[in-house]
TrEMBL record:
The lineage of its organism: Eukaryota, Fungi, Dikarya, Ascomycota, Saccharomycotina. Residues 120-156 are annotated as: Disordered. It comes from the Eukaryota. Residues 2-93 form the Cohesin subunit SCC3 C-terminal domain. It holds the Pfam family SCC3_C. InterPro entries: SCC3_C. Residues 120-134, 142-156 have a biased composition (Polar residues). This is Cohesin subunit SCC3 C-terminal domain-containing protein.
Amino acid sequence: FNKHLPKYLADNANKAFLEVFLLLEGLYADEFDLRLERMDDEDVNFNDLSDIELFQNNEKELLLFTIKLKALMKLDLLSSKVVSRISLNKDIIGPLFMKVIDNSIFETSDAPVIVPQHASRNLNPSNEQNVHTHNSLEEDNNNNTFSEMIEQSSEL
């Protein structure tokens, strides 16, 4: 199996993955007016992101892309810089992102999810279970659950 895979991805591939991640992270942060931490060497200017509407659901795109990056991490194909960078703002972005970073997204729990204040815009009292908010990722426009969306993305 390993003899068919490269031992690492080329630097330009790592850079491209990081740039896409930074864009998605910036779009999500702009939507919720979050102030993100940045690395010293990041040459990023996302001041005009509010004018860009690439996706209907920035959170979904960020989480799905991060899950795909995590798969590359498990194969040891990403640089350590990319690996450390994607977890830099896990405490700021929100509980679902933190679960993706901590590899606990598919664990079940009876404990309520603590939702950060910026995510309170997604409240929907009719869908309260053990989660005190309705997350935009709970269902997409096709009524797919988040777990179904993740399974579909892993088939790509």
